[in-house]
Amino acid sequence: MPWFKKEKKAPIPAPGKDGAVRVPEGLWVKCPSCAQVIYNKDLLVSLQVCPKCAHHFRMTAAERLAMLLDGPWIEYDDGLRSTDPLQFTDTKPYRDRLNASIKATGRRDAVVTTSGTLDGLPVEVAAMEYSFIGGSMGVVVGEKITRAIERAVAGRVPMIIVSCSGGARMMEGALSLMQMAKVSAALARLDRAGLPYISLLTDPTTGGVTASFAMLGDLNIAEPKALIGFAGPRVIEQTIRQKLPEGFQRSEFLLEHGMLDMVVDRRELKATVARALRFMRAGGEAVPSTVPSPSPTP
Ligand SMILES: [Zn+2]
User: Distance, CA 50 to ligand 1 centroid (Å)?
Assistant: First the structure.
């Protein structure tokens, strides 16, 4: 399901004339935005952000959690895996796709759900893994996120979901679409319990994920220039037969049009989330409501 182009890694530099100099693959990465060649270790230090042009490279779920959380985290439900309920086959059986992704990523599905602390504050965090079938949401993703939200309600801690997804997983048909309602209902329970939910939208966040939990945050915070939308720009252009405006479906455009609350550089993200959580906690517990109760109408 290659809905989005993968970021290209730089080609291995050519060996010297003597043919002796060889750089191991993956040591250097070429920035797809400014073409700067970056030493891979420097990129790790800068949280996968290009030091020259601030292009945000995609992160794995583990890198994301390491960035947000203070120390080691507790992972839940990592044994859950899809049972291929429809026995779906397109160009190849869904079961084979699952097995290939499990082998490639070491994960059993496209989300990692954890408990940990963020700047000392206890939180539940779900981080999506794009390299697992495009971060698509099937039954396992829906179930794991729902359980994470239920843990947040039970433990009275805030919920953070980091979206990085192509949307609902078509190989699970209507069952994958039902996850939109299921996760949204769990978030409504979190809301009724008076607990904050921060949605972090990263490149890309599309389809059924955008159409459900990614846009339901008390705060919706996106990384710069992330592709965020429902249908892809090409599909929309073909449908409405109009040229789309410059920057359409990118974070900055959506912020300008009121769809997001903030666009935050990844290097500032943890501090921003911590500040927001402290602000919301103070609002919920320490500050009495200043809104007068409505007087009964005569
Ligand atoms: Zn760059």
Answer: 5
Residues, the chain: 298
The residues pairing with 124 across neighbouring beta strands, listed in sequence order, are: 115, 159
Q: Which residues surround ligand 1, an ion (CB under 5 A)?
A: 31, 33-34, 36, 50, 52-53, 55
What is the 262 CA–ligand 1 centroid distance (Å)? Answer: 22
Pairing of strands 121-128, 159-165: parallel
**By C-alpha distance, which of 205, 255, 224, 250 is closest to 47?**
224
The alpha carbon of 34 and the centre of ligand 1 are apart by a number of angstroms equal to 4
pLDDT tens, the chain, 298 aa long: 445 445 554 444 444 444 444 445 679 999 999 999 999 999 999 999 999 999 999 999 999 999 999 999 999 999 999 999 999 999 999 999 999 999 999 999 999 999 999 999 999 999 999 999 999 999 999 999 999 999 999 999 999 999 999 999 999 999 999 999 999 999 999 999 999 999 999 999 999 999 999 999 999 999 999 999 999 888 999 999 999 998 999 999 999 999 999 999 999 999 999 999 999 988 645 444 444 445 544 4
